[in-house]
Amino acid sequence: MKYVLVLIFALFAMPCTAQSAGEVSAEIIVYRLPDPERLYIYRNGSVVYDAVIPENGIIRNTFILPENIQLDSLTISQAGRRIYSYSTQIGEVLVMLRSGERPDLVRVLQIHIPDVAPGVPLEVKYGVRNSGLSWDFILDMEIAEQNLLECALVAAIKTERELPGTTQSILARRPEIILASSRNILLEDTGTMFDLGRPVVEANRRMLIKLDEGKTPYRLVYLWDANRRERPAVYLRAPMPFKTMAERVQPYLNSSGLSVASLSAINISPDRSFDFYIGEQPNIVTYKSVTTAEYPERENLPFTHALEYRVTNQLNRGVSIEVSVPVTYGEKHRTEYHFTKSPDERLGDQMVWKYDLAPGAQAKVEFSFDSESKSSPLYSQFDYNEGGR
Length: 389
Hints:
Elements: E1 3-9, E2 24-31, E3 35-42, E4 47-53, E5 62-66, E6 69-78, E7 81-83, E8 87-95, E9 104-112, E10 122-128, E11 133-143, E12 148-159, H1 165-172, E13 176-180, E14 193-195, E15 206-217, E16 219-225, E17 233-239, E18 246-255, E19 258-261, E20 266-268, E21 273-280, E22 284-294, E23 303-313, E24 319-326, E25 336-339, E26 345-347, E27 350-357, E28 362-371, E29 384-386
Parallel strand pairs: 1-2, 2-8, 3-13, 11-18, 16-24, 22-29
Antiparallel strand pairs: 3-4, 4-10, 5-9, 6-7, 6-10, 8-9, 11-12, 12-15, 13-14, 16-17, 17-21, 18-19, 18-20, 22-23, 23-28, 24-27, 25-28, 26-27
């Protein structure tokens, strides 16, 4: 008895020939995965494909997608109308992953649509698990002349050593790749989607792609958290040169090819400045003292705390310094403050005084407050403490 084998491809279907009497026809169906037009890569490793299933890719009302699809993300449309009635099953079928190669038995998701319109392609969108693709932001900064900071916002795309065969097959077809920095599409704008075009993406690689760049003036700010630290902390501040908004961006600060400091991940936004902690400055000398007096005739606020903070610039250049002191609150009665010079800013529970100090210059912060409490545990760290213990 003779057998006639007919190969049916998802993108090219070979018609069966007529059989003579006594012949039995058997079909070997070879599928091909759809060619995604776009590929969205999210920072957490989620990947969403946007693809078209051509009419000759639908065999007996059935087409295939990768096995690692997230079913809750699958949408199917035809001629602009959503299709809601379909069935799915996981199975092994012959798939031609690359043109000209021998078909392989691949585990895929088979999707059957009972009432698909003939001769009209399908549009599908779907997310996949364990794609082997991920990316993240890098903020690369270089100290330049004239107190300028050269900045580049870079995408670092990573691919695993062993990508799934279906992922490699799709990437080999060079789809348009879009990086998405937010998972909430309702909150996204043009600053959170980055179209990279159709780059070559292969397994076991780390690709760096510049998304944005700009120059911004910077300055060093010396911030003394006066009640808690002995020395001022040094921060580099600069206006944001980008329109992008993103969380957990890893910054690198370089000068003449050397890393200036180990910086923690930051959030960036067009309405915020860069503010990087880069170390402590021992050449700005500090002094703090407190004197506590008791007034028994005052029933609710019997104690007055007089505080003095001094900073002296021993550098050979001028500095901008901020002295930050926490607000003291009463448990039963409101604390009353008396200032020689009012704070320049009140940030939450902090009071901030700002000074520009020439070399050798000194600034002094003095104030007092009436309180129900006699002392504070922080006073033990002061250079001088009288009457509070």
